[in-house]
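Lab meeting prep.
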Amino acid sequence: MTQMHPLENLYQEELYNIRGKILVLIRKPWADITEDEKTLLTKILSSVKLSLASVQIINRAEFDAVDFSAFRPDCIIAFGSTLKTSNKMYEKIVQNDVAIVVADELDQLDDVRKRNLWLTLKQLFHS
C-alpha cells in the first residue's frame, strides 16, 4: 500500500471556487451616483452572487478590454460606458479572454433592459 502525504487531500477544488476579478464600469463619477442607483447596482450584483465589496468599480466613459489588462479581469460589466470595438449591448462579448457585458446607465434601466441584462448575466455567471 502506498503511503499518502497527510495534506494531499486537504484542499478540495469544490470548496475553494474563487472567482476571478470582476470590473464594473460606470460612466459618471461614483460621487454622482444616486442612492437609488447604488441600490439597483447592489441588487444587480447580488442576483449573480456578487456584492459591491467583491467587485472593482471604475469610472470610464469609453473603454477597451486592453485598457484594463493590468487588472487582469475575468469579466467587465459596463453601465453607460461605451466599448470602443463594439456597439452590442446586453450580449456577452469576449475580447482578449475577458467577458464583457455592456448595458445602459443605471438610471436608464427600465424593466425590459433589466431583463435583458439579467439574461446575459445569468448566461455569463451560471454557465
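Slide two material, second protein:
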Amino acid sequence: MRARKSLARSTARDLLKEMGLTEPPVDPVEIARNLGVRVVNVAPPDEDVSGFLIREDPDTGEPIIGVNKHHSALRRRFTVAHELGHFLLDHEGNWHVDDMMISFRDSKSSTGEHDQEVEANQFAAALLMPRTWLKSDFPEERFDLGDDRKLKQLAARYRVSTQAMTFRLVNLDLLS
C-alpha cells in the first residue's frame, strides 16, 4: 500500500509539472479538461455521493467526472481532484450501470477502508496542496494549528477547506 500511496503522490507532482503549475490555487476542473475529461455538476439521488467517474461515456466515448452540485465549492474541487486520481491511477470502478464502470466518492471514501479511496485522496491532497508549496509558505517554522487565522488564510490560498488543510499539514508532519 505504501508504494501505491507514493505512486499517487508522484503522479500528482508529475501532473503539476506537466501542466506548468507552480503556485496555488490549482484548478482541478481545468486540469480535467486538459486531460480530455468532462466535468459535470449533477444532483445524485443519494446526497451522500460527492462524485463519480465514468471512464467512457457510451455516447461520446469520453471520460466524465460527475460532482454533486449541492456540495460546497471547496468540496467539489476536492472531489474533482479525487476522481482525477481514480482516472490517472487506473482504478477499477465499483459499480456497473449497463456496460459502464462507475466509481463513486461518498462519505466512506475518506475513512481509509478501501485502498483505492486512500490513494485517490492522497493524489487529490498532493495535487491541491503540494508538499513543496506548503513548505515554502512557512520555511523557517512549523505551522501552529492553534493559529486559526493563519490556517484559514492558508486554506483560502489553496482553495481547500480548513479540514482538508489540517489533514494535509498533519500528514506532512508540518505542525508544531
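Talking points for slide two:
The radius of gyration is 16 Å.
Helices lie at 2-18, 28-34, 73-88, 115-128, 131-137, 148-158, 162-171.
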